[in-house]
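Section 4.2 – Deliverable D4.2 (structural model, holo form)

The reporting period included a commitment to supply a predicted holo structure for the target in complex with heme C. Inputs used:
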Amino acid sequence: MKIMCALLSIFIIMAFCNLCFSPHLNGAQVINQGQEAYEANCADCHRSNGEGLAVKFPALKGNPFVTGAPQPLIELMLRGRKGKMGLMPAWQEHLSDAQMAALLSYIRNAWGNQAAPVQPQDVGKLRRY
Ligand code: HEC
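Output (structure tokens):
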């Protein structure tokens, strides 16, 4: 009986670990991961509600550049831009393809935005070192 309990516990622990480390995330998990990355890296400037700050930081909510073709958006994210409003930092050294894809899928579908998600390989193709 003791052995059965021990085996059962090991089995439960293994199943749990497997869940934690599963590399295949579903859509909702990707969006959650994207939201976390957004809060950690972007919300200081563009704010949690995606509305930015007048004159200083552009709004991402309702912004056609965010919900439009993914390529210019990914390129801006990787390489940054110094524009009229100020400096948008480059993120290619800070975020992996998967993190970037999750983050962009989040901002393309947060705050009423609606657009197709971005895949990690879309980011990988545009990365240059
Ligand atoms: C230090 C402040 C700052 C941080 C942090 C920051 N941004 Fe920006 N971002 C800016 C500024 C300033 C601009 C406008 C640059 C310009 O004048 O062209 C900008 C521009 C953008 C644009 C282009 C908007 C448009 O209409 O052209 C997007 C998209 C964007 N940021 C997304 C993000 C995301 C996603 C993150 C987090 C990974 C992030 N930004 C982090 C300051 C910041």
